[in-house]
Amino acid sequence: MFDLNSKPSTDCENVSAREWAKILIKYRTPDFSRSMFELLVTLVPFFAIWAAAWWAISVSNWLSFAIALLNGPLLVRLFIIQHDCGHRSFVESRVLGDWIGRLLGVLTVTPYEMWRHAHAVHHSASGNLDRRGLGDIRTMTVQEYNNAGLIERIYYRIYRNPFMTFLIAPGILFLVVNRLPFGFMDQRKFWISAMGNNLGILALLGPIYLIGGWAPILLIFLPSTILAASLGVWLFYVQHQFEHTHWEEEENWDVHEAALHGSSHYKLPPVLQWLSGNIGIHHVHHLNSRIPFYRLPEVLRDHEGLAVGAELTIRESLETAKLHLWDEESKRLLSYKEARALA
After folding, report:
1. Buried b vs exposed e over 9-22: b needs ≥16 C-beta within 10 Å?
2. What is the DSSP-derived secondary structure letter of residue 248?
3. Angle at which helices 94-107 and 71-86 cross, to 10°
4. Residue 287: in which H helix or E strand, if any?
């Protein structure tokens, strides 16, 4: 029997991905007091910044806009808490966790049940070439791209262009696409999720409009939401889209191997790590998604072997934006230029 309390070698290669998943089971239990503390220390400054930005409208629209942008990273952190609710890792009570997730979904403009389902599919199929398409960033193989027609290639290039991926598409996704259950149109529960989220957003913005008109919506709500969406998409991108990530066809795919080798360890400065809810420790999160976000650093402190897996610094992560095609032969994510060189 595998000893869950045993400390493995610091050499990650000596411990299989499946064994790591078993080792990490003991970190799954959330602490209710800690969870509530993390929620409060995110919500209080979020609403304080909202109030400060609203007050600043009377001084200068540009000042209000600048203050509002400070809430972008805090919205990302609120999304991570919502994300943990979806994984049942924030609080032990499923009912309480779901309601926290739904209410936070109003602030993050994300229908909770709809997103939770898509994200569960992402976790169950990440790195599987035969199960791409839901809850992930579209990735073509070199062969698929070479065999594609001109229109499909142009569409893919637009889709994967950094300007589109990180600046234009995130706002459209969260503010427009999330308003309807695209991909789940035939399922009643996802209609309820999307419409409930829409009603919640209207209930929040309606009184703001009646009191302050369009100014707080245009200067505070939209900028902070769009910035948070772009930051969130960037984080999601670098968590799986790096040169030596992990993709396999169904017959060779293993969920634990994909979790450990297909998810990055994004090394961020302490402030950015706090604002991003430690989600950069993504390989650990994929090995066991039930671990609360505030316990992820604890895992790395206890198990040095996991701290060195698929590391990406901020500078290194910027280079991933030019990688677009997966080469099944070399097992690497390539740029278009590198793919042409192979051809």
Report:
1. eeebeebebbebbb
2. B
3. 150
4. helix 282-287
The dihedrals phi and psi of 326, each to the nearest 5 degrees, come to -95, 125
Angle between helices 112-125 and 71-86 (to 10 degrees): 70
Query: Two tokens at 246?
Result: 């992990």
CB 261 within 8 A of CB 332: no
Q: Which residue has the tokens 């997966």?
A: 326
Q: Which of 227, 206, 226 is nearest to 216 (CA)?
A: 206
- Whether 1 has a pLDDT exceeding 60, the answer reads no
Q: How far apart are CA 185 and CA 195, in angstroms?
A: 12
Other CB atoms within 10 A of residue 313 CB: 10
Q: What's the pLDDT at 12?
A: 53
Of the chain, the end-to-end C-alpha distance in Å amounts to 49
Confidence (pLDDT) at 343: 73
How far is Cα 241 from Cα 143, in angstroms, rounded to an integer? Answer: 18
Short-list 159, 182, 173, 155, CA closest to 241: 159
How high is the pLDDT of residue 81? 98
Residue 301 to residue 307: CA distance in whole angstroms: 8
pTM of the model: 0.92
Indicate the residue type of 64: S
Cα gap 234→225, rounded to integer Å: 14
Q: Which tokens go with 182?
A: 């695209």
